[in-house]
Amino acid sequence: MEVENLSLNHIALVVEDLHEALVFWGEQLGLPAAGVVQTIHDEGVDIAFLQIGAARLELIQPRDQESGVARFLAKRGPGLHHLCLEVPDLDAKLGELAAQGIELINESPRERQGRRYAFVHPASSGGVLLELYERH
Description:
The protein is of the alpha+beta class and 136 residues long. It is built from 3 helices and 8 strands; from the N terminus they run βαβββαβαβββ. It has helices at 18-28, 68-76, 90-99; strands spanning 7-14, 38-40, 45-52, 55-62, 79-87, 110-112, 115-120, 129-134. An 8-stranded mixed sheet has the order 2-3-4-1-5-8-7-6. The longest helix has 11 residues, at 18-28.
């Protein structure tokens, strides 16, 4: 089996207050912003990225109390939401994982702002929600 070149794209934290989180992680710790705050309407969240070396920290605040992120926050509280790894070929990786019986949240890639991504269910990844990005 050939070993793939995977890389960490970001670590995502769910937060109760995005502004407060940006003050701590950005201003107090000094992590530089990697863009502006974005509203992702179809997921009911606001997000912001901060740069950590070659990877990023994604801060996620629910806007819609019915969203999956809001339910996650209510159940587990603030903290780690998911890890995101980049893969060279997302379609191939999803097919390979499905063939191995790995439970996928997204059986086919989704796309936002030109970026293809999919989630692997935490039941198959040791309790960690895993997001896969297709490398540009």
